[in-house]
Amino acid sequence: MVSTHSSSQKILVTGGAGFIGSHTVVALVEAGFEPVIVDNFSNSEPAVLDGLRAILGRDIICYHADCNDAAAMTEIFRTEQLSGVIHFAAYKAVGESVQQPLKYYRNNLDSTMLLLELMPQFNVRNLVFSSSCTVYGQPEILPVTEDTPRLPAQSPYGNTKAICEDIIRDTVHAGTPIKAFSLRYFNPIGAHPSAQIGELPRGVPGNLVPYITQTAAGLREKLTVFGDDYNTPDGSCIRDFIHVMDLADAHVSALRLLDQSRTNSLYDVYNIGTGHGASVLELIRTFEDVNGIQVNYTTGPRRPGDVEQIYAVVDKANRDMDWQAQRSLGDALRDAWAWQKKLSKIV
Q1: Which residue in 63, 157, 267, 270 is the catalytic one?
Q2: Could you report the per-residue pLDDT of 1-47, keeping only the tens digit for each?
Q3: What positions does the domain NAD(P)-binding occupy (predicted)?
Q4: What is the CATH class of 10-189+241-274?
């Protein structure tokens, strides 16, 4: 453990060894914060800590603990004198959540409620919650703003995000001295430009970009594009893809905005995306162009539960947080391929 001068604000990062969490740890350190990771490594690898050390030139405080373990979490709060929490830790596989809803409700809701109980006990005011655009379902009007009605979630996973938002809002409205933002992410992709950390799916990737990079690396025979008959310009689904480092920077901006607020209790929601959509086929073509490599893909039938198109209006985050996405789709796909080449030892 490396000690730092006491002026650094310590930020608890639950799930800090995960894909978005690890990149946010980098952004926090670069912004002068002192991240404290808690992760049970159920869906991440301890080797991520080596990648963080390579980027940052120092170790990051890390507790191997479960966010539902009240005794362990209480001890962490007591030891670390935190000034804020970024809550990433959650089960997030959509398909598995349909098969095992109770596993998802228990883990994702209980961990959030435990944090909300501990924060006032230890005088920790600021909370940034990792939410998702899944709370919008298939929106009737595009693009979506923060005022777009939430529709019934397409999966128990998506529903846990909506319920956690409500739990946080109700806790704040009850007068609890907590200031909280829910960041509704769109589709995070890419990797740190150093290729020291990136997305590390276990087994068959559930997300599009790791499937593309694994297919390009020869680990998968081919990629299937689910549906080419949607009501979009090229027939494939449209998403708002955001570079994971831009998403990481948004958490730093959110923490700063919470810190500036002089109210005791505060709750708000923010869309975090690029503000425009790209189709699945456009994404594949861009990957091929920026990396000079062909991807073996075929089109198949639509996949149940897939939203046809969704992309964000991000004016609120641009205005309130003084934040906006800086990196292009090409940047994200170049970084994702560099990370895959490192994993696969491709020169």
Answers
A1: 157
A2: 333 434 589 999 999 999 999 999 999 999 999 999 999 999 999 99
A3: 12-334
A4: alpha beta
